[in-house]
What does this fold into?
Amino acid sequence: MCPTTQFRRCGLGIAVWSLVSVLVVAAGLVGVVLWQHSYDMDEQRVSIRHGGHTLNGVLATPKDGRKRHGLVVYLHGDGPVDASHDDGYKPTWEANAKAGYASLSWDKPGVAGAPGDWLDQSMDDRANEAAAAIAWARARPDIDGDRIGLWGASQAGWVLPKVAAKTPVSFVIAVSPAINWLQQGRYNLLAELRADGASAARTKAEIARSDTTRRLLKRHAPFEEYTKAMRGDTDGMTADRWRFISKNYTADATQDLRALRGVPVMLTLAGHDINVDTADTERIYRKMLDAGGVLTVKRYPDAAHSLVKHSIEQSDLKTTLTALFSPRSLFADGFLDNQRQFLKEIG
It folds into this structure.
């Protein structure tokens, strides 16, 4: 206990040591974050010319001393995604690097200062973009042009086989890929309604709203007509988004998957996927590709659509803290290791 005459001096000492303790803890936490976000690979910004525009990309390469590497080309899912998906791709890039593969990804048009607008793109436009990126990579002395494959998630399910039809690829990693746009949309609607515990009346109303949207799309109705039909309640739909959907709603990967016959494919499916009907996806992939004996199916019962652990994705706080202090732990157990092993077996 501090004597009365020394109280102020003693109190100051306690305050100083408390501050020192806080700073030490803070420094330790910063150190943990920096260490967890230090990946075993080199990254460089690259520029790829395509169609009179520039794709702003990132090339991540292994630190193994080799002069040439195979390459994994990344195809994004829906939304305004930058090259690293807000650093979310980096654990997978590191897994690729451990298998001796580089990774290439780029900002979607209109994202992070990139020219253009991704909402103006069709799935064919995206495939042409990827084919141009592969041609650029094959011209590099540090990339083995005979070992270039694709990694694509969700909406990229419509793009992956289109790319393979345009240029040879050595493998495909398909993560929660979609098959049919309209069927996926209906599946997602019903799954979300079930998750919300929606009443029968609400479910009926939402299905009717969805059916109206489909009829308008088939008639190539303008956004103004859609807005009128929805009585002004567009539920977040914008004119640009309506234009994007109108351009792509007929997408169906079923027949396009024939371009992947003979190509090693790893199909990755989540157990808690409310975006994609994984049973239907697996059925179609097996129907179209199993005969060639090159399809590998990996299921992750504890994963959500993004392959993040479902228990983590359910909480914004858990997601933020895990992404900050242990980003590799975001993903379902075995996901990163299986991707690395698949690439090592490809060679």
In short: The CA atoms of residues 183 and 216 lie 16 Å apart. The radius of gyration is 24 Å. Confidence is low (pLDDT under 50) at residues 1-12.
